[in-house]
């Protein structure tokens, strides 16, 4: 929409209530105040100067008179100022407060401004906009629920035909209906393999729909984490051996806590499975678990191909696969890490990755010592990218001030809003002395937090997640 | 010869289960919903009922309430945790929960175990 600015118009000025109000106020200041001043000055000078006083005294009295007049004028101006603030700044302040609420996502606030001028009109327009926003917000939530429900229903419906299909295939393969030729067997093998794959995708979809509807079941019970991790690693060892990969497990003494052993093991298996997939032949995968403050920190480190910063941000997105020439051979449903994220975050834990291309990746996740009382729905099908950009924008605004927005947009245009690019950018700012060393460090720290707000929790407690691997580094 | 009653609203599943179990020498009867199941029990006198949880018509919890002296194994795409949440697994004669899609060998193994063979 183009704002129609027609320039100055006397008619508009006269019919604008707020202009009349302001004109009136300025008239008071501009006409009444000097008139009052003249009046005071006349009275005082007449009363003083009528008596024939010595010259020095009359000068002194004139100065006193001038001071009194100034004071009286200041009081006048104060009274006028008070009315100005009553009629203009107060409603603006109210509008501002309500805007702040809307910004926080509370669309149920309304302004109640009865000034009878353009500010009231603005307030009415604002209220209408907020009502429209509230409607959109409700619609968005409804669509979101519909999406989760659709996902759940379709996944169940998709799974039903799998039952007879798999049963018949297995019977065919098992020779229930007679002996098969080698060609028939080979053909059947492909059908079975793909039916299994399809079923796995459907199962993963169901899991996602459970996470999104907060229907993921957790059975919290007192668990010896050391045993749990050892069993999981033992189980995964078979897969690791196929690729000549060694699983290196070191666990500190850990407290026995209440957690869901199956779910925790599921996340670990998934991470180890990924690590095996991306490991080079004969390399090592390090699995660690340790007690850090009020949570247990698990980590799985591989020495595989690693990831660039874009992959690191997007790796937990559904169906995101690392762009690599070897992608095809990695396979999988593309939902594994999304589900891990859902499982971990549903119990108020965090999951994140640190990686460097060509030197491997480390996946971390933390599980609180005390289990959550209520499982909350988590949106795993939405990209966290928008959230990251929004947070970055706020950091730019708060650290660089008004300059920040322009800089942010320029970087966004260059698609340079990734962690490494941003670190380079901050370094260049400190080199140009736009920021001092201290500010640069602070800015980088904030950026780091945005990219893995998980680390926020840990860094606050002076434990860096990487400290587990300091020997390696 | 032991008789097994397969209750499922999907014909393909009923037929598949029938094929599998008949190959192991069982007598297999079929029903396509809860009401049908209660009727067939009287005529077929099964030793085991394989019962789907989600079927149109009479709700499954109503069906199982009326069966007290025959072993029942649930068959379902929903998980056992979900079934427990619906309060379905409380009766003593509910002896197993077979997750769909099932493995043919696993199905046979479970049925043989329940029927003590």
Brief digest:
The complex is a heterodimer of chains A (473) and B (117). Chain A is α+β, with helices and mostly antiparallel strands.
Write out key terms for the chains shown.
heterodimer, A: 473 residues, alpha+beta, Heat Shock Protein 90, 5-stranded mixed beta sheet, two-stranded antiparallel ribbon, disordered C terminus, B: 117 residues, alpha/beta, 5-stranded parallel beta sheet, 5 helices, 5 strands, globular
Q: How much helical structure, as a percent, in the residues of chain B?
A: 40-55%
Count of the domains of chain A: 4
> What is the oligomeric state here?
heterodimer
The pLDDT mean of chain A sits at 79
CATH class of the largest domain in chain A: Alpha Beta
The total count of strands of chain B amounts to: 5
Strand element count of chain A: 7
Q: Biggest interface, which chains?
A: A-B, 18 and 22 residues
Biggest β-sheet of chain A: count, sense, barrel?
5 strands, mixed
Count the DSSP helices of chain B: 5
The number of domains of chain B: 1
CATH H-level homologous superfamily name of chain B: Response regulator
In terms of DSSP E residues, the strand content of chain B is 15-25%
Largest sheet strand order of chain A: 2-4-5-7-6
What is the structural class of chain A?
alpha+beta
Order of strands across the main sheet of chain B: 2-1-3-4-5
* Rg of chain B, nearest Å: 13 Å
Given as residue ranges, the uncertain stretches of chain A (5+ residues, pLDDT < 50) are 453-473
What would you note in describing this structure?
- The complex is a heterodimer of chains A (473) and B (117).
- Chain A is an alpha+beta fold and 473 residues long.
- Chain A is 62% helix and 10% strand.
- Chain A has 16 helices and 7 strands.
- Chain A has a 5-stranded mixed beta sheet, with helices on both faces. In chain A, strands 1-3 form a two-stranded antiparallel ribbon.
- The longest helix of chain A is centred in the first third of the chain and has 49 residues, at 55-103.
- Mean pLDDT of chain A is 79; it is low at 453-473.
- Chain B has a single domain (3-114), classed as Response regulator (Rossmann fold), CATH 3.40.50.
- Chain B is 40% helix and 23% strand.
- Chain B is α/β, with parallel strands linked by helices and 117 residues long.
- The radius of gyration of chain B is 13 Å and the shape is globular.
- The A-B interface holds A 156, 159-168, 170-171, 174, 176, 199, 217, 219 and B 10, 12-13, 15-17, 19-20, 23, 77-79, 81-82, 85, 100-105, 107.
């Amino acid at each position: 929409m183009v704002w129609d600015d027609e320039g100055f118009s006397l008619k508009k000025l006269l019919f604008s209530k707020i202009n009349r109000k302001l004109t009136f106020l300025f008239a008071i200041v501009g006409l009444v105040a000097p008139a009052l001043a003249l009046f005071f000055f006349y009275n005082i000078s007449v009363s003083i100067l009528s008596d024939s006083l010595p010259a020095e005294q009359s000068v002194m009295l004139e100065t006193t008179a001038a001071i009194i007049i100034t004071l009286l004028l200041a009081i006048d101006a104060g009274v006028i100022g008070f009315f100005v603030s009553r009629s203009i700044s107060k409603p603006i302040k109210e509008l501002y407060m309500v805007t702040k609420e809307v910004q926080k996502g509370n669309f149920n606030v309304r302004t109640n401004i009865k000034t009878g001028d353009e500010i009231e009109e603005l307030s009415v327009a604002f209220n209408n906009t907020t009502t429209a926003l509230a409607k959109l917000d409700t619609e968005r939530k409804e669509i979101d629920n519909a999406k989760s429900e659709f996902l759940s229903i379709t996944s169940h419906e998709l799974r039903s035909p799998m039952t007879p299909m798999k049963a018949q295939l297995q019977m065919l393969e098992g020779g229930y209906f007679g002996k098969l030729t080698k060609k028939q067997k080979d053909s059947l093998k492909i059908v079975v393999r793909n039916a299994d794959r399809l079923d796995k995708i459907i199962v993963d979809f169901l899991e996602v729909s459970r996470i999104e509807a907060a229907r993921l079941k957790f059975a919290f019970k007192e668990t010896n984490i050391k045993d749990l991790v050892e069993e999981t690693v033992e189980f995964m060892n078979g897969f690791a051996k196929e690729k000549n990969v060694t699983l290196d497990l070191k666990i500190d003494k850990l407290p026995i806590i209440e957690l869901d052993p199956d779910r925790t093991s599921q996340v670990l298996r998934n991470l180890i499975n990924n690590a095996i997939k991306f490991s080079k032949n004969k390399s090592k995968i390090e699995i660690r678990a340790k007690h850090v403050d009020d949570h247990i920190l698990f980590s799985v480190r591989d020495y595989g191909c690693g990831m660039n910063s874009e992959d690191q941000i997007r790796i937990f997105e559904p169906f995101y696969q690392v762009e690599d020439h070897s992608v095809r051979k990695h396979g999988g449903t593309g939902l594994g890490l999304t589900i891990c994220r859902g499982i971990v975050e549903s119990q108020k834990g965090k999951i994140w990755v640190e990686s460097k291309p060509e030197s491997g990746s480390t996946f971390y996740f933390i599980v609180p010592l005390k289990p959550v009382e209520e499982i909350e729905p988590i949106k795993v099908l939405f990209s966290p990218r928008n959230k990251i950009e929004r947070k970055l924008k706020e950091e730019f605004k708060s650290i660089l001030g008004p300059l920040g927005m322009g800089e942010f947009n320029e970087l966004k245009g260059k698609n340079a809003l990734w962690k490494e690019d941003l670190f380079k950018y901050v370094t260049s700012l400190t080199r140009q002395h736009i920021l001092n060393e201290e500010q640069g460090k602070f800015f980088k720290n904030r950026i780091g937090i945005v990219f893995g707000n998980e680390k926020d929790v840990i860094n606050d407690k002076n434990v860096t997640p990487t400290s587990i691997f300091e020997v390696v580094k | 010869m032991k008789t097994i009653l397969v209750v499922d609203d999907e014909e393909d599943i009923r037929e598949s289960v029938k094929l599998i179990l008949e190959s192991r020498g069982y007598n297999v009867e079929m029903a396509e919903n809860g009401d049908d199941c209660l009727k067939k029990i009287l005529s077929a006198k099964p030793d085991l009922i394989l019962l789907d949880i989600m079927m149109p018509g009479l709700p499954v919890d109503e069906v199982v309430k009326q069966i007290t002296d025959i072993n029942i194994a649930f068959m379902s795409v929903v998980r056992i945790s979900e079934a427990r949440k619906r309060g379905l697994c409380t009766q003593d004669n509910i002896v197993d929960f077979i997750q769909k899609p099932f493995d043919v060998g696993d199905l046979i193994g479970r049925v043989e175990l329940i029927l003590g063979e």
